[in-house]
Amino acid sequence: MIPRRRIPARSTPAWTLARAPSLLVAGLVLATLSATVQRPVAAQVPTPASILGFVPGTDRELANWSEMTTYYSALARASNRVVLDTLGSTTDGRPFVMLTVTSPDNHDRIDELHDIQMRLADPRGITGPREAARLVAQGRTVVLITHGIHATEVGSAQSAANLAYRLASSNDPVVREILDNVILLQIPSLNPDGMEWVVDWYRRWVGTEYEAAPLPWLYHRYVGHDNNRDWYAFTQAETQLTIEKAHNAWHPQIVHDIHQMGGGGARIFFPPYIEPWDPNIDPGLTTAVNQLGTYMAAELTAGGKSGVVVQAIYDAYTPARAYQHYHAGARILSETASADLATPVEVDRDDLGGGRGYDAASRSWNYPWPWEGGRWGLPDIVDYMESGAMALLTHAARNRSYWLQNFLEIGERAITVADGTPEAWVIAADPGARPAIDYALRILAMGDVEVHRAEAPFTVDGNRYPAGTWVIPMRQPYASFVQTLLERQVYPDLREYPGGPPRRPYDVTAHTLPLLFGFEAEPVYSPLGVALSDPIDPPALDFRLPPELTGDDAPRVAIYKGHQEPMEAGWTRWVFDQHGLAYDTLHDATVRAGDLNARYDVILLQDQSPASISQGFAAGRLPDRYVGGLGDAGLRALRDFVRNGGRLVAIEEATDLAIDLFDLGISNAVERMPTNDFYIPGSLLGVELEDGLFARGLETEGAGWFWRSSRAFDVRDPTARVLARYG
Q1: What share of the chain is helix, strand, coil (3-state, %, to 5)?
Q2: Strands (DSSP E) along 547-664, which ranges?
Q3: What's the rounded mean pLDDT across residues 324-347?
Q4: What are the phi and psi torsion angles at 53 (to 5°)?
Q5: Which residues fall within 8 angstroms of residue 561, CB to CB, at 6 or more apart?
Q6: Mapped to the 3 state alphabet, what secondary structure does 683-701 carry?
């Protein structure tokens, strides 16, 4: 961890002085969030401070989601440049909203401009070059800006209000140019639930010794920080709403995803990304991303902002983070250096480190003006973010014709099958793999992919397929999404230096749906010659639990939840909730009390280190109720639970705890091996499963297992049952 000195707080937290104004307004606007807020002709546009009680981006001041939606409602009522829509509800029932910001004239023509955008997105309906040129000339650059997907990256959602106000109220020529040429879709928080929790937690402790202490639970009920890995699986409510009602509803040319990163290096990152890029991404998008990110970096540098880095740290390999790269949209990730939530810090120059592709202490071509260290706080974070967003919007406005023409050409290339690429993908309607196929088809259909069924038997590339076979033609706008999800990835052999060790991937390296779910998909390279059905709607999912997991005789399951909760615990809860599996949440105190067999048959320990489970947060890190872990008493209780017939399931790092607790005749075979010699990035591994209840519904040979840990076991006890082997 980079050493940073927190700057002392004021004696009286300023947010306590600002609650009354927002509470007065909240009661007046609550009803407006249930439907579209209509635009008035004109009115006095309220500043964020007039409703929140402070300017977003002030040290030690944060607005929560309830207060921000109050502000956006007031803004939309007062400005004829802004429409506020509630797209749906979050996982925990809060309003999930989007602002549409553009000129009044564009709002008056919004249906016409939307039709132009949809026609450019699918060139199959364009009659020829003359119509294409007319659509490009008449259209607008559509930009989607998303804020606050990670709730502890607090600056992103706070900056949203400042940006919206600036565009709604300013008559600056640059703003007018943006409004005339751009339709901005602004989602001010992709995780409103987490924003509410993090802000309320920070307020509770600001001005105390626990100021900026970590939140002792996940900041999304199910996925925590993993919500930005959901852009091809579409598991969460917030992802689904964004895909359906922003991405697919408008197909933006540019998507700006505003994040924060660690505070010990550059002040902000923009693309270009480092290698690798997924080869399925259109080259026109790669060049568009590169030039736009470089332009944004140049604008911030020209504006006097040091510490801007490009082509570092982040790659562009997986659709898990970049839905738009497979839908003709340029993903512009920005990552701004963090403080301690809203608490400013002092960073010494000598403590600055670096990252992949740059050294924060040295000047280089992609980091031309190193930050010298010093004070860094929420005002700086929000300023850098807003400056980046304005640079992006300015480029989108001034280069409107380029963005629309490039968008059109990407679509034209997509509907023209290139040499060496499939004419279609086919999936046999295998009854045994029906749930897996339905899930994959649902992903493709939600991703705006046209999926059909063959209406008669057909033969292609020497293979015979029955009627009812699923067919995904590749002459469609989002064929690259199909290709990247159905083919097997071959991650490039990148080295730290020629002849050196492999360069560790930034993130996941594979995402093949047939391997993940267990079904066969085949590319075909010749014309199909068979009639196809109309495109299907996303199929409904029908998961049925084995009878032994339901009813009075079902095992009594508990999922352990300490205060250092890993994301895997949330994902496990999601799986259980999706399938209707009953479980209890097991806290430290309950474990320490013992007598676990009276209540449970199975206890699950998630991917946590033994120290995290047994010790938790150290005293003084958080208030007393959140420190400590199972302790000796809890470990004894787990040991007694197993000895008395209970079943303990330990996942990934938690297996080290199980090995320590019990004489299993098993050891971690790679425990002392350097990580450079043995590590598994996010990969799909071939797995052989022991036949039986454990493998019900799965292929026992050749199953795909996604893993991003680094575990291997030496099994010395000949009586031990090995349920799964990989390699």
Answers
A1: 40, 20, 45
A2: 557-560, 584-586, 602-605, 647-650
A3: 98
A4: 95, 0
A5: 217, 569, 585, 586, 587
A6: EEEEEEECCCHHHCCCCCC
Gap between the Cα atoms of 681 and 616, Å rounded? 26
Instruction: Provide the residue type at 305 as one letter.
Output: K
DSSP helix/strand/coil, 48: helix
| DSSP structure class, residue 92 | T
Maximum C-alpha span of the chain: 79
Q: Which domains does the chain have, with CATH numbers?
A: 5-261+328-336+376-414 (3.40.630), 424-524 (no CATH), 549-726 (3.40.50.880)
In angstroms, what CA-CA distances link 593 with 272, 390, 586?
A: 54, 56, 11
Give mean pLDDT, residues 207-212: 96
Single-letter amino acid, residue 400: R
Contacts of 42 (CB under 8 A, 6+ apart): 80
Triad 154, 157, 163: Cα angle to 5°: 130
Counting Cβ atoms within 10 Å, is residue 551 exposed (0-12), middle (13-18) or buried (19+)?
Answer: exposed
pLDDT digit string, tens, across residues 166-193 = 999 999 999 999 999 999 999 999 999 9
For residue 504, the 8-state DSSP code is P
Q: What is the pLDDT of residues 348-366, one digit of tens each?
A: 999 999 889 999 999 999 9
Show the tokens assigned to 280.
Answer: 């399925």
* Cα distance between residue 615 and residue 628, in whole Å: 5
Q: List, edge to edge, every strand of the sheet that includes 374-376.
A: 5-6, 345-347, 374-376
CA 723 to chain centre: 32
DSSP for residue 40: P
Amino acid at 96: F
Residue owning tokens 């040979």: 701
What does the radius of gyration of the chain's CA atoms come to, in whole angstroms? 27
Beta bridge partners of 83: 100
Alpha-carbon distance of 17 to 717, in angstroms, equals 65
SS3 453: strand
